[in-house]
Amino acid sequence: MHNSTLSKRSERLIHLLFWVFTAYFAFVMNPFEFRFFIPNLFYLTYLIAFVATFYFHYLVVMKWVFKAFQWKRLLLGMVISYLVFTALRWFEEQFVTGILFDKVNYINPSFISYLVDNLLYSSKPIIFSSFLWYVIYFIHLLEEKKNTEIKFLKAQINPHFVFNTLNNIYSMVYFQSEKSLPAIAKLSEVMRFTTYYSQRERINLTEEINYIKAYIELEQFRHTESDFVNLNIKTDDENIEIPPYILSPLIENALKHGLASNEHPIFVEISTDSKKISFFVRNEIGRQKKDKLGGIGLDNLKKRLELYYPNAHQLSLTNENNQFTALLQIDLK
């Protein structure tokens, strides 16, 4: 279950309201005449099995299913809950009530007929439990997405990067450098992406690539060396749609914390095929102090990947031999 602002108290309140409505439709026959259904022994045992199966399916099965969702896991989970319900009901109505009250609900039932009959009775707690779990899960998911996107919008671009770039442009203009106008143009391109494209739910891959190129070129204005980034693009379809800032944080992280020089260039490769997008970044690890305030950060990137590509992406980050490598693969549907 995703963490969100939906508190445990609120979640318990949703459960309470659910059971109030369930009890109303189960026991209230006529609210105006105060007529209520009086349950018999085996209706009570059914209710016990109903509630027990409901929360077994809710707390165990659904959590397991959505840990790595697959339809076969969902089907297997429902079968397990059905067997739990059937076994629990047999234990109550064919064993416990027989000992305590000398009564059984089924008289010498065949194994197959008992399974078939309880297939109908077990469907209600399983379906209701699945529905309530998914409603609460969906509320968590929406709030998690909202909170993550708010953090994302608050920190789309490192403010220190902007300040440093403006200082560099100021120096270029002051000394009448021929690089000053191209630097202003590139900064304008970066800010345009930040202002307009980042507000969209999806953008073309080519737009993210253009932002990455502009970001790299701006960094080049700050360095005496010009070939400290080796950018390779291998894609025939740059119109693939992706969420904005889903690739660029890895570039920003490498430029910010890596050791970038002609001798130790940052290697970047973007490739696509009909099934996936692959994004690879490798850089030497710099010794400079890390800025905790900058960028949207790798943690925020991981959350956004979970939101946009659940079970459809792989992000591998390694730190070995003074090299940091990041490999992001996104499965295309």
Report what the structure shows.
There is one protein chain. This protein is of the alpha+beta class. It has 2 domains: 8-152, no CATH class; 155-331, Histidine kinase-like ATPase, C-terminal domain (Heat Shock Protein 90). It has 9 helices and 10 strands. Strands 4, 6, 7, 8, 9 and 10 form a 6-stranded mixed β-sheet that branches. A two-stranded antiparallel ribbon has the order 1-2. The protein is elongated, with a radius of gyration of 30 Å. The two termini are 24 Å apart.
Short description:
With 333 residues, the chain is of the alpha+beta class. The protein folds into 2 domains: 8-152, no CATH class; 155-331, Histidine kinase-like ATPase, C-terminal domain (Heat Shock Protein 90). It has helices at 8-27, 41-65, 71-100, 111-154, 159-174, 180-195, 205-222, 248-257, 297-308; strands spanning 28-30, 35-36, 203-204, 229-234, 241-242, 258-259, 266-272, 276-285, 313-320, 323-331.
Class by helix and strand content? alpha+beta
CATH class of the largest domain: Alpha Beta
Number of strands: 10
Helix content: 55-70%
Radius of gyration: 30 Å
Question: H/E order of the elements?
Answer: HEEHHHHHEHEEHEEEHEE
Mean pLDDT: 83
Question: The CATH topology of the largest domain is what?
Answer: Heat Shock Protein 90
Largest β-sheet summary: 6 strands, mixed
Count of structural domains = 2
How many separate helices?
9
Strand content: 15-25%
Q: Tell me, briefly, the overall form.
A: elongated
Low-confidence stretches: 289-295
Ends: how far apart?
A: 24 Å
CATH architecture of the largest domain: 2-Layer Sandwich
